[in-house]
């Protein structure tokens, strides 16, 4: 969080929330911070600004990330603004200062409104599905639940990063000259009696990877590119070596049903596999040294563009933070199949991405990286990258005819962080060309771009999608 000398910060509600979360009285917190209780009381009532010195004391005393302190509560202003953009509330004029007051002064009430709206939209969608299909489902889909659970933790799992670094070091690819794939394959064979076999596409049919527990074999399709094949092998190694730890994390999450728990385990195993292929410290150091050059990171760790992009959203270690990136993946119709952020990008929670964003036009230049500076309705500016990636498994699904089902990856960070990126060099970041985008074009009838494009939707993922993918969610290509 930037603290300019001439800018007064009134963070009373957030400071009060921090104090209550730690179970402190005003007198106790004032003593910890070296100020008087009356001064702290004035700050909490926004009668005094928070000084830079006090912010530093907060960070040192309570190990607080100042960026997190600068964010709103669970239901932020942007999320409430998106909800109120629903035509259901047409004619109800809610100014921004009222939303700010609600999120700052009563974050619990704001979160309650958001949950109520989410329940309403889910019920509405179930009713529509029942009319169309003659059946209704209950509760959020497994993919929605897992996505929200991961994002609530800012896509950062220090315990998995630690396990990944340890396992990568035990493989020691730098000493042998062999890559992680060969070393992981050998470790599966020697320690776990598990063989890896590459099979013809006509044998695998629609599968790109499949584990045969009875014959102790991991079967991989010949259509996989090297990075996807390596990821699938390391994924199996992560599961073989650390299934107990992964199961404990899943149990602690308290998933609502068995299908959701299974999907969460797949996701966490993928996170661990990525931490093995791209160990945190080495990956973060090279990213900083190269200006977050994705091609250099791909070459060093023998991974794909999408795998690097997703790993960039997980660099939140307090002692070695990376640029707080967000990531979103869409198809040509605008359907969202992946969205994560280590920062605070205001994803549309009930719709898709705005078509004015070049993420959608990236399909016209396959494989080419395009940049754009966008501005969200809250006035925040973001430096973004977009590029297409190929969906794995399309080749065999089309009988070898090679029709491609391209996806596009959008990656970005706040404009103030762009100076750290090689892709922003030479740009005038002080007075850039900016494109305003809307929050959720499916809902926002006020936004001009809503009249020019078909409304994108958030594509629900089935459990089968994960089990058939090459590198199952979140680091895989399909």
Automatic annotation (TrEMBL):
It holds the Pfam family Peptidase_M78. Residues 15-69 form the HTH cro/C1-type domain. InterPro entries: Cro/C1-type_HTH, HTH_RamB, IrrE_HExxH, Lambda_DNA-bd_dom_sf, ScfR_C, TransReg_Diox_bact_type. Belongs to the short-chain fatty acyl-CoA assimilation regulator (ScfR) family. Keywords: DNA-binding, Transcription, Transcription regulation. This is XRE family transcriptional regulator. Gene3D superfamilies: lambda repressor-like DNA-binding domains. The lineage of its organism: Bacteria, Pseudomonadati, Pseudomonadota, Alphaproteobacteria, Caulobacterales. GO terms for molecular function: DNA binding; DNA-binding transcription factor activity. The keyword Transmembrane helix does not apply. One of its GO terms (cellular component) is cytosol.
């Amino acid at each position: 969080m930037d603290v300019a000398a001439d800018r007064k910060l009134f963070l009373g509600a957030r400071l009060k929330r921090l104090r209550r979360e730690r179970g402190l009285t005003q007198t106790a917190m004032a003593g910890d911070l070296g100020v008087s209780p009356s001064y702290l009381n004035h700050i909490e009532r926004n009668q005094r600004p928070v000084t830079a010195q006090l912010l530093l004391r907060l960070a040192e005393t309570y190990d607080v990330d100042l960026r997190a302190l600068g964010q709103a509560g669970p239901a932020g202003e942007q999320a409430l603004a998106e909800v109120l953009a629903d035509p259901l509330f047409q004619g109800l004029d809610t100014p921004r200062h009222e939303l700010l007051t609600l999120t700052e002064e009563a974050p619990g009430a704001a979160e309650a409104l958001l949950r109520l709206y989410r329940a309403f939209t889910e019920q509405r969608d179930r009713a529509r599905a029942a009319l169309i299909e003659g059946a209704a489902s209950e509760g959020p889909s497994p993919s929605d639940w897992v996505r929200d659970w991961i994002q609530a933790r800012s896509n950062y799992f220090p315990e998995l990063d630690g396990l990944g670094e340890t396992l990568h070091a035990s493989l020691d690819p730098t000493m042998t000259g062999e890559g992680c794939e060969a070393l992981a394959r050998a470790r599966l064979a020697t320690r776990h009696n598990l063989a890896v076999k590459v099979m013809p596409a006509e044998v695998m049919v629609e599968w790109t990877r499949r584990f045969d527990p009875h014959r102790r074999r991991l079967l991989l399709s010949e259509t996989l590119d090297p990075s996807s094949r390596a990821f699938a092998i390391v994924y199996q190694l992560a599961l073989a070596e650390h299934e107990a730890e992964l199961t404990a994390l899943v149990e602690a999450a308290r998933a609502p049903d068995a299908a959701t728990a299974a999907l969460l385990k797949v996701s966490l195993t993928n996170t661990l596999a990525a931490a093995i292929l791209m160990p945190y410290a080495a990956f973060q150091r090279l990213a900083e040294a190269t200006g977050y050059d994705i091609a250099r990171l791909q070459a060093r760790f023998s991974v794909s563009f999408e795998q690097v992009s997703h790993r960039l959203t997980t660099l939140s270690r307090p002692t070695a933070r990376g640029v707080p990136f967000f990531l979103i993946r869409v198809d040509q119709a605008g359907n969202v199949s992946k969205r994560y952020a280590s920062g605070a990008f205001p994803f549309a929670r009930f719709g898709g991405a705005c078509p004015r964003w070049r993420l959608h036009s990236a399909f016209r230049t396959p494989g080419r990286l395009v940049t754009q500076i966008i501005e969200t309705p809250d006035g925040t500016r973001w430096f973004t990258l977009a590029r297409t990636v190929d969906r794995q498994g399309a080749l065999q699904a089309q009988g070898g005819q090679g029709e491609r089902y391209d996806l596009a990856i959008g990656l970005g960070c706040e404009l103030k962080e762009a100076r750290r990126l090689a892709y922003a060099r030479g740009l005038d970041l002080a007075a850039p060309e900016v494109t305003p985008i809307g929050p959720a074009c499916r809902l926002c009838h006020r936004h001009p771009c809503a009249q020019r494009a078909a409304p994108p939707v958030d594509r629900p993922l089935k459990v089968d999608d994960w089990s058939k993918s090459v590198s199952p969610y979140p680091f895989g290509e399909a």
